[in-house]
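Quick one, T. Sequence first:
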Amino acid sequence: MGENKERMLAGDWYLPDDGELGADSMRRAELCRDFNASVDHAERRLLLAELLGSVGEGVRIRSPFQCDYGRYISVGARTFVNFGAVFLDAAPITVGADVQIGPNVQLLTPTHELDTERRRAGWERAEPVTIGDNVWLGGGVIVCPGVTIGADTVVGAGSVVTKDLPAGVLAVGNPARVIRILRPPGGT
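Structure tokens:
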């Protein structure tokens, strides 16, 4: 593994356009293209297994689906991802089991340099995104780098999640804020 890729996976500043990462991105582009073009359920399942780091039983992802690399994405059993999802996985994206993801949801791990010269040079870094079991992300939700959403949480359509959300709450808005507890911690 090259030094730049090691920096990316460690959450350090890296340049996304180097040769090794470019080859990974090309692999992803071909697999996403084939997945999005296929209508055969068995073929789509095989393509997902090759594209993603891990895919649980019964996962359904509707086309179009796009990602940065694919191999840093883990999706738990029985999860459903609707049309237009974008998972930018320069850091790991972990999606639990029984998750419902609405149309046009974005899970974003990369962040860019605030310094104008370094940003112009292309420097970025990435922070993992974690979605707990039985989470529902409404249509158009954006989950920002480094965010963890606890199990059984619901995020309303169009919300932008900039900070961690606890388990068992309803959160809405930009930035997303908890407006209701759906279940007490440790409750059923």
